[in-house]
Amino acid sequence: MKNIFWLLLFFCSVALAQPNGELLASQCFQCHGFNGHSKGEIDSIAGESASDLYGDLKEFQNNGKNDIMSKQSRLYTDEELKAIAIYFSTVR
Ligand code: HEC
Fold this sequence. Notes:
The chain is 64% helix and 0% strand. The protein is an all-alpha fold. The chain has a single domain, classed as Cytochrome c-like domain (Cytochrome Bc1 Complex, Chain D, domain 2), CATH 1.10.760.10. The structure holds heme C. InterPro entries: Cyt_c-like_dom, Cyt_c-like_dom_sf. Residues 15-92 form the Cytochrome c domain. It comes from Methylocucumis oryzae.
């Protein structure tokens, strides 16, 4: 009986776990620079507003194209895109 309690607790905590924005955002660093501070031609995305970033990502996700950002954005769930957008909005 005790085991069932721990099993339930485990599944609840997994279900409630929030996506880790910083970890997910690190995938973006390879093109947009460490923490979104680009040193190359691709735009910096650090410090942009979370809602603008999320809006851009949803647009990329739904534009039906097969370019870099459309493919990138389709790899994430809604919750993950929100976490990524919030993370970049907090870096200076
Ligand atoms: C393989 C390289 C690459 C990766 C990885 C990448 N991007 Fe991009 N990103 C680009 C390029 C190139 C553009 C410009 C594309 C365009 O304007 O159509 C762009 C444009 C953007 C823009 C719009 C420009 C702006 O200034 O607002 C946002 C937002 C963005 N990327 C966010 C992200 C996020 C968040 C991630 C990680 C989930 C990510 N990108 C991963 C290459 C990349």
